Fold this sequence. Notes:
The chain is α/β, with parallel strands linked by helices and 435 residues long. The protein has helices at 6-16, 102-105, 108-124, 137-149, 178-184, 194-207, 234-246, 258-267, 280-289, 297-309, 315-337, 358-365, 370-384, and strands at 2-3, 22-30, 39-47, 50-56, 70-81, 83-88, 127-132, 156-159, 212-215, 251-255, 271-274, 292-294, 341-342, 402-405, 421-424, 427-433. The strands form three sheets. Strands 1-16-15-14-5-2-3-4 form an eight-stranded mixed β-sheet. It has a five-stranded parallel β-sheet with strand order 9-10-11-12-13, with helices on both faces. A hairpin with an 8-residue loop joins strand 2 and strand 3 (39-47). Zinc ion binds at residues 87, 89, 133-134, 347. InterPro entries: Amidohydro-rel, Metal-dep_hydrolase_composite, Metal_Hydrolase, Metallo-dep_Hydrolase, OTAase-like. Keywords: Signal.
Amino acid sequence: xxxxxxxxxxxxxxxxxxxxxxxxxxxxxxxxxxxxxxxxxxxxxxxxxxxxxxxxxxxxxxxxxxxxxxxxxxxxxxxxxxxxxxxxxxxxxxxxxxxxxxxxxxxxxxxxxxxxxxxxxxxxxxxxxxxxxxxxxxxxxxxxxxxxxxxxxxxxxxxxxxxxxxxxxxxxxxxxxxxxxxxxxxxxxxxxxxxxxxxxxxxxxxxxxxxxxxxxxxxxxxxxxxxxxxxxxxxxxxxxxxxxxxxxxxxxxxxxxxxxxxxxxxxxxxxxxxxxxxxxxxxxxxxxxxxxxxxxxxxxxxxxxxxxxxxxxxxxxxxxxxxxxxxxxxxxxxxxxxxxxxxxxxxxxxxxxxxxxxxxxxxxxxxxxxxxxxxxxxxxxxxxxxxxxxxxxxxxxxxxxxxxxxxxxxxxxxxxxxxxxxxxxxxxxxxxxxx
Length: 435
Ligand SMILES: [Zn+2]
C-alpha cells in the first residue's frame, strides 16, 4: 500500500482539468444509497463535481460521449457515498496533555488554525459533510467560508455558531472569577426570558448560523454541579423554536434528563442531541412529533475512557459521567425498539476528530443492523440538513462525495474506520493505491 499525497494528486488533477472535468470511477462493488442493492462492476460518472450516472460494466469515456475523462480504478474496492456527521465541534478537541491555560493565552485564530487539522482528519476519515454544533462564531463561520472557497480542505460545514443557553447553563462558562468570565464567556447566545432568547436566535442567525443549537438541559462536560435537568424554560424554548423556524432554521436541543427532553420536544425542536434518559413520555413525543434522536454514543464512551486515565477532570464532571454512562445504552435501545427516528452524530471534539466512524460500530453493537446504522448517516442526516437531494446518495445531480473501503461494511461495519479513498465534489482527497 502506498499513500499518494494529496498535493501531488491534486496537482495532477488540476492540470488534467484544463481539458477534462469528467472522472470515471471503476467500482468493483458500489452501494449507491443506504437502502439500495449492492451492484458489481459499475462505472460511476462524475462531471463538474456532481454525479452524472452509474453505468453497467467498466465503460470508456468515448462510450459515454465524453471527450476525455480521468479514470480511477477502484475495482478491488467497495464504493459508497461520503459519510455525514450531524454533531461535531470542529474548532476544538479534548486534549488532557494540552496547556490548561491555553485558552487564556490564545486568540480565535489559534483555534481556527488548529481546526484545519481537525477538518483534514475528518475528511480523510470519509466524512464529507458535518454539522458543527457549538464553536465560537468568530472561528466557525470563517472556517466554513475557507472550506467553501477551497482555501482549506475539509468536509462541507453546516454551522450553528454559538449555542443558545441561559446564564449559568451548559453553554455558558463556569468556574472562574467574574472578570475572567466577563472577558471570555459567550457573548451572543446567553439569554434569559423569552424576549431575550428571541434576540439571541436573531443575532446568531444574523452572524451566519444555518441551524440553532440550544442547551435545553445541563451537560456532562460543563464544570458545574447544576446537574442534567431542564435549564431553558418552556417559554424560552418555545420562543427560540418559533423565531428560528420563522427564519428558516431548524433547532436542535442538547438534552439529557427525560423531563428536559420532553420539554424540548413539546416546544417543537427538530432533534435531540444525546437524549441520555428515556421514558414513556419522551418516546411518545419523539413519535408524535417525528423529531430525531442524535444519540452521540461515542461521546459517552470517550469521556468514560478519558476519566480512567485523566485525574485532572473536575469532580463535578466525573460525577455526571458516572451518573449518565450506565443509562445511555438502554435509552438508545428503547428508542430503536419503538421506532424513533435516529440520525448520526458523534460529538467529535469530545472524541478525536477522524474517529467519527467508531459511532457506526457502537450503533451496531447496541442493536442496529449495519444497513440501519449506515442509514442514520446517509438517509436520516440529510433530512435534518435539508440536503436530501444533494448528499447521502450517488445519484444523478448529487454532489460527487465518494468514499471506498476494502470490504463491504454491510458485512463488517468496522470497515468504515479504514477508508481507502475519499472524493469530495469530484476532487480526489485521498487514494491508497495497491502496489
Ligand atoms: Zn456537542
